[in-house]
């Protein structure tokens, strides 16, 4: 089944070419995009099944075997990330189609939207499957170039300003990443991840620490880790709701994925564990304090996005199997829930005319469906039992307590505090936007009903978030297997080289 591995990258790129040739034919573009993303989701599910029941699936592109050629690897972690990212991108695409129809743009949409969206998907999937550092860099650049276009789509002043900040920060992280790649190649003579396992271990400790620090700096910017996160709350809220949702759900998680992959495979042993734990604590606490201070739903959610990246660093920084498996579970949870909340914010803006809390009210009475679509993922994000957010945080707390160190205990306290403040932040949104008497600016009547094609994908993601609770046991088992494989580096190396010497 190795032939399936390149398909999550190839199909979106092929679809992007087709939709680009179909400029001016919106129905054809929509059909191609939906077909491609549905097929990508099905292939990703197959890759998860085969990687879980057997060894990782490996493909040498063009027949050039590792370490000379480009290698794509679908192990349990990569396949799991492919499944959740494919599900999210498909739902967001349906939502964006519904929004376009509701806004009257179905006949004259921006022809570049569908090709760019599919290119973004290809960049994300390529980053997850990359078996060498340079291909990982290529994946980042593909998704970042596409994200520049999507972020500034429409060309408004606010979007251009926010996009400029995003471009500058992203280029800085890319330069740091590319510099680190050059130094690693100069020191080891290879960029293949499996081959780097042995060659990096042979380098002096000081040089390894410098290389590790540069990669962490580059990925930390991409993942919006404090103090490298100030760009995110200013960039994401200005974009259209579907764009903001897919950015919030996926782009920062690609950075987190890169941290997990490189820290476990290339730099094991916990040399940067203390740094990751400290950064995780600061990201959690400072991010959620920023959320509490916001009066706009999109900005509030942007700060909660930053804050909950800290939980992921918590799990990685513990360098234990339980911590890593809990972080993997939490990544799946957070991608789903954060995307859902941003789609719900788009529905709130559609129904109430704004996302500013002082201009909203009474939405629970005016639109009960919208109230449910916001309330369930909000409670899930806050970690209320029995939702998946509670299960993921409980796993991280157990891992921190089992470690017994001072820093892990501080992270446990910080995680509980962050969860309580998250509950306060979303309760404040609920109270102001849904419960209080609506101001005159909030429209009422049948003309303000929500578009079904925007409600349906949001509801699908709400159900997926609830489903994570139902399948928490099997999902944690997959995460535990993935964590075990990540910590046993020979598993990855043997998959790439077939048991031969690198």
UniProtKB/TrEMBL annotation:
<feature type="transmembrane region" description="Helical">
    <location>
        <begin position="241"/>
        <end position="260"/>
    </location>
</feature>
<dbReference type="InterPro" id="IPR050586">
    <property type="entry name" value="CPA3_Na-H_Antiporter_D"/>
</dbReference>
<feature type="transmembrane region" description="Helical">
    <location>
        <begin position="31"/>
        <end position="50"/>
    </location>
</feature>
<feature type="transmembrane region" description="Helical">
    <location>
        <begin position="70"/>
        <end position="98"/>
    </location>
</feature>
<keyword id="KW-0472">Membrane</keyword>
<comment type="similarity">
    <text>Belongs to the CPA3 antiporters (TC 2.A.63) subunit D family.</text>
</comment>
<protein>
    <submittedName>
        <fullName>Na+/H+ antiporter subunit D</fullName>
    </submittedName>
</protein>
<feature type="transmembrane region" description="Helical">
    <location>
        <begin position="300"/>
        <end position="321"/>
    </location>
</feature>
<dbReference type="Pfam" id="PF00361">
    <property type="entry name" value="Proton_antipo_M"/>
</dbReference>
<feature type="transmembrane region" description="Helical">
    <location>
        <begin position="369"/>
        <end position="387"/>
    </location>
</feature>
<dbReference type="InterPro" id="IPR003918">
    <property type="entry name" value="NADH_UbQ_OxRdtase"/>
</dbReference>
<feature type="domain" description="NADH:quinone oxidoreductase/Mrp antiporter transmembrane">
    <location>
        <begin position="130"/>
        <end position="415"/>
    </location>
</feature>
<feature type="transmembrane region" description="Helical">
    <location>
        <begin position="6"/>
        <end position="24"/>
    </location>
</feature>
<dbReference type="InterPro" id="IPR001750">
    <property type="entry name" value="ND/Mrp_TM"/>
</dbReference>
<feature type="transmembrane region" description="Helical">
    <location>
        <begin position="327"/>
        <end position="348"/>
    </location>
</feature>
<keyword id="KW-1003">Cell membrane</keyword>
<feature type="transmembrane region" description="Helical">
    <location>
        <begin position="166"/>
        <end position="187"/>
    </location>
</feature>
<feature type="transmembrane region" description="Helical">
    <location>
        <begin position="272"/>
        <end position="293"/>
    </location>
</feature>
<feature type="transmembrane region" description="Helical">
    <location>
        <begin position="448"/>
        <end position="476"/>
    </location>
</feature>
<feature type="transmembrane region" description="Helical">
    <location>
        <begin position="136"/>
        <end position="154"/>
    </location>
</feature>
<feature type="transmembrane region" description="Helical">
    <location>
        <begin position="110"/>
        <end position="130"/>
    </location>
</feature>
<feature type="transmembrane region" description="Helical">
    <location>
        <begin position="407"/>
        <end position="427"/>
    </location>
</feature>
<keyword id="KW-0812">Transmembrane</keyword>
<keyword id="KW-1133">Transmembrane helix</keyword>
<feature type="transmembrane region" description="Helical">
    <location>
        <begin position="207"/>
        <end position="229"/>
    </location>
</feature>
């Amino acid at each position: 089944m190795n032939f399936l591995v390149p398909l999550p990258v190839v199909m979106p790129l092929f679809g992007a070419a087709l939709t680009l040739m179909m400029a001016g034919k919106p129905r054809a573009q929509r059909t191609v995009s939906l077909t491609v993303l549905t097929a990508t989701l099905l292939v990703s599910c197959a890759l998860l099944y085969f990687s879980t029941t057997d060894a990782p699936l490996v493909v040498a592109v063009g027949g050039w075997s590792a370490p000379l050629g480009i290698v794509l690897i679908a192990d349990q972690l990569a396949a799991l990330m492919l499944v959740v990212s494919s599900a999210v991108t498909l739902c967001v695409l349906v939502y964006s189609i519904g929004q376009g129809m509701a806004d009257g743009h179905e006949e004259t949409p921006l022809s570049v939207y569908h090709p760019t969206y599919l290119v973004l998907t290809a960049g994300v999937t390529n980053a997850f499957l990359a078996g060498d550092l340079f291909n990982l860099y290529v994946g980042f650049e593909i998704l970042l170039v596409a994200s520049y276009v999507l972020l500034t789509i429409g060309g408004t002043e606010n979007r251009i300003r926010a996009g400029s900040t995003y471009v500058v920060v992203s280029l800085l992280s890319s330069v740091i990443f590319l510099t680190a790649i050059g130094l690693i190649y100069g020191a080891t003579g290879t960029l293949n991840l499996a081959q780097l396992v042995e060659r990096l271990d042979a380098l002096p400790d000081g040089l390894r620490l410098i290389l590790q620090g540069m990669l962490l700096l580059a990925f930390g910017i991409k993942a919006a880790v404090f103090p490298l996160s100030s760009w995110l709350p200013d960039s994401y809220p200005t974009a259209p709701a579907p764009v903001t949702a897919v950015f919030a759900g996926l782009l920062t998680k690609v950075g987190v994925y890169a941290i997990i992959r490189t820290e476990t495979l290339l730099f094991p042993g916990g040399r940067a564990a203390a740094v990751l734990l400290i950064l995780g604590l600061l990201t959690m606490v400072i991010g959620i304090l920023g959320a509490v201070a916001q009066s706009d739903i999109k900005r509030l959610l942007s700060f909660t996005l930053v804050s909950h990246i800290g939980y992921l660093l918590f799990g990685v920084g513990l360098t234990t199997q339980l911590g890593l498996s809990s972080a993997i579970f939490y990544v799946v949870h957070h991608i789903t829930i954060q995307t859902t909340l941003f789609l719900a914010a788009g529905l709130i803006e559609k129904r109430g005319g704004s996302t500013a809390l002082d201009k909203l009210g009474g939405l629970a009475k005016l639109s009960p469906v919208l109230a449910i679509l916001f309330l369930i993922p909000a409670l899930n994000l806050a970690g209320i039992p029995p939702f998946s957010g509670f299960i993921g945080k409980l796993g991280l707390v157990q891992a921190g307590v089992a470690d017994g160190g001072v820093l892990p205990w501080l992270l446990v306290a910080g995680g509980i505090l962050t969860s309580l403040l998250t509950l306060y932040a979303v309760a404040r949104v609920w109270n102001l936007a849904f419960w209080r008497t609506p101001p005159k600016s909030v429209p009422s009547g049948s003309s303000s009903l929500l578009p079904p094609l925007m409600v349906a994908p949001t509801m699908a993601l709400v159900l997926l978030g609830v489903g994570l609770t139902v399948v928490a046991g099997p999902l944690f088992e997959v995460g535990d297997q993935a964590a075990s494989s990540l910590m046993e580096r020979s598993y990855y190396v043997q998959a790439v080289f077939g048991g031969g010497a690198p």
